[in-house]
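The material for today's practical consists of a large collection of protein records. Getting from the letters to the tokens is the skill we practise here. To make this concrete, we reproduce a full record directly below:
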Amino acid sequence: MTDPFKIDSPTCISFSGGRTSAYMLWRVLQSNGGLPPEAVVLFANTGKEDEATLRFVQDCSDRWGVHITWIEYQSAEDPKDRLKVVDFASAARNGEPFEALIRKKNYLPNPVTRFCTVDLKIKPFANYCRHHLGWDEWDNMIGIRADEPRRVAKIRANPSDGVKGIHRLMPLATACISKQDVGAFWGQQPFDLELPNIAGVTYHGNCDLCFLKGASQVYSLIAEKPARAVWWAKQEGSITNPGIVGGGYFRKDRPSYAAMAKFASEQRDMFDPNEEAIACFCGE
């Protein structure tokens, strides 16, 4: 069997800052004796990641001796200018890239129109490879595991995701890696992502109160740290576009972030704790 982690052509390794994509990166380094010259590791910071995620990205870079390029969305007319390169010290921590996108769109992403992942991560990755590296075609490694069959099937059915020149690869799925395998790996390492691992799921990961997370998960995260709700409530109160139905809320099928913060302060139960989150391609 061909090693799915072996690289022999221009390749972008999408690093979400979670345990799964970090494990994928480690396997790439093992299979190639380090990072091949024709590969780049990209981390897209939205400004809404937990500080522990940012530390973990830097730890992987420092401990494994691999350069990770940090990029952030910028509002600009020219695609090549819609990102800037940052680092651990200069990375946004108050949602600035995400808020800039919302201001540009003048409506909020939602479960039907999930433009945040596309505009904050996928397009900046493609823009960096195309305009900063000069690539016309490349492989894009993403951290999708074998135990995510719906996501695997969707990507295999559309490997370019409509972006010219890109061919998405899922080496973890090809290698039959599951969340148990990822968890076992991190259990043996001298460092780890400092966020809870609950049955292989990191509820604190990606954007802290992502609207695709289950309502009970969001509510518990607000109850744990009420300040998390401030940015999200601010965005829901900032939309002035009357032509977008539901555009002023991340979700119309559950209470606003301000309402959830109020209920949390009153220590009242609101949601079914067994509700599942909606799958997103931000990664883990």
Q: What stands out?
A: The beta strands are 11-14, 39-44, 69-73, 83-86, 138-141, 166-169. The first strand starts at residue 11 and ends at 14. The CA atoms of residues 13 and 25 lie 7 Å apart. The first helix runs from residue 19 to 32.
